Amino acid sequence: MSVPATQIQAGADEVIVASASIRRPVVVMIDEAVRRTIDITVCTLSLILLFPLFLALAIAIRMDSPGPVLFIQKRVGKNGVEFPFFKFRSMYIDSEQRRAALLVNNEASGPLFKMKQDPRITKVGRLIRRSSIDELPQLLNVLRGEMTLVGPRPALPSEVATYSPKERQRLIVTPGLTGLWQVSGRSDLSFDQAIHLDLDYIRRRSVLLDVQILAKTIPAVVAGRGAY
Fold this sequence. Notes:
Elements: H1 5-8, H2 25-49, H3 51-64, E1 70-76, E2 82-88, H4 95-102, H5 123-130, H6 138-143, E3 148-150, H7 157-160, E4 176-178, H8 191-204, H9 207-223
Parallel strand pairs: 3-4
Antiparallel strand pairs: 1-2
């Protein structure tokens, strides 16, 4: 499934990321080739080194609550194409059925749903979400080319369905494992603030900026800022 290109463009008063699409083709090709090389190298090494941790987490998740180790969900990627999004399962298996009853407690703005004390989260899940370890299986998404290390976070199809033309500009680049708003407060930010940071990233997107964001990601994860 994909979103028509005409829906991804902003209106005349919202051409925020136009500069990102008018760079010379050769520059764009080199930039993308370098980014993909970094993605493959970093993800391959990380998956090898983190395999013992993955195995320990799989055992802990299965012992903590019934259900699969991985949580797989449809997300929307570049140009509106949907893909299977991987995470370590951090909620009970009936979490989607219980979501409707919790909507009145939503602490997020826009189409997002966030609760600091979400009762659907398991004991192990709360720990791995706090440290963002639950996101590590997305290294597989990066290897598959569905995601990149740095970029806007991939949204749910139901969220994208409510996007304005301005917000749909997030879909012109490959979504990322981390990004500008992830190192700037994560869930503590409003939806509008997150969109602003994503569009700012797209406008200034470069390998150097990606490296800077990756360098800020580790301290942000260790501090647990906006993670819940």
